[in-house]
Amino acid sequence: MAALSIHERKRLRQIGHVLNPVVMIGGQGLTDAVIEETLRALNDHELIKVKIAGEDREARTATIDAIVEATGAQAVQKIGKIVLLYKKAAKQNQHLSNLVRHAHLAN
């Protein structure tokens, strides 16, 4: 997957600002069910926020790296316990895609 340009990242961050986390990774860590749910959310919404519990910064970073690798998504932004993930859907759903629904924010 090609790296995002500075302008694309900025646009995605603007859209992501209004989003709430749709996937929460808790004490169980990165399970197959969490990866599956993240893939489903990425396929539906293309741009999602994931919240990672835990106080250990290095563990959160490792979890982010693992979920990016497992899903093939790109980490657009990391702030504290929240990561903004982007993965272009094979077939964009006009009703669910955050890129379509919040396109007016990036103009």
The CATH homologous superfamily corresponds to YhbY-like
Shape: globular
The major pleated sheet works out as: 4 strands, mixed
User: How many domains in all?
Assistant: 1
SSE order: HEHEHEEH
Counted beta strands: 4
Helix and strand composition category: alpha+beta
Placed side by side, the strands forming the largest sheet appear as 1-2-4-3
> Strand portion, in percent?
15-25%
**Which whole number gives the mean pLDDT?**
91
CATH class: Alpha Beta
Can you tell me the CATH topology?
Translation Initiation Factor IF3
- Radius of gyration, taken over Cα atoms and rounded to an integer in Å: 13 Å
Annotated CATH architecture: 2-Layer Sandwich
The residue ranges in which pLDDT falls below 50 over 5 or more consecutive positions are: none
Q: How far apart are the termini?
A: 25 Å
Helix content, binned percent: 40-55%
Total number of helical segments? 4
Describe this protein's structure.
- The protein is of the alpha+beta class and 107 residues long.
- The protein has one domain (4-103): YhbY-like (Translation Initiation Factor IF3, 2-Layer Sandwich), CATH 3.30.110.60.
- It has helices at residues 6-16, 32-45, 57-71, 98-101; strands at 21-25, 47-52, 74-79, 82-86.
- A 4-stranded mixed β-sheet has the order 1-2-4-3, with helices on both faces.
- The protein is globular, with a radius of gyration of 13 Å.
- One of its GO terms (molecular function) is RNA binding.
Topology at a glance:
Blueprint: H1 6-16, E1 21-25, H2 32-45, E2 47-52, H3 57-71, E3 74-79, E4 82-86, H4 98-101
Parallel strand pairs: 1-2
Antiparallel strand pairs: 2-4, 3-4
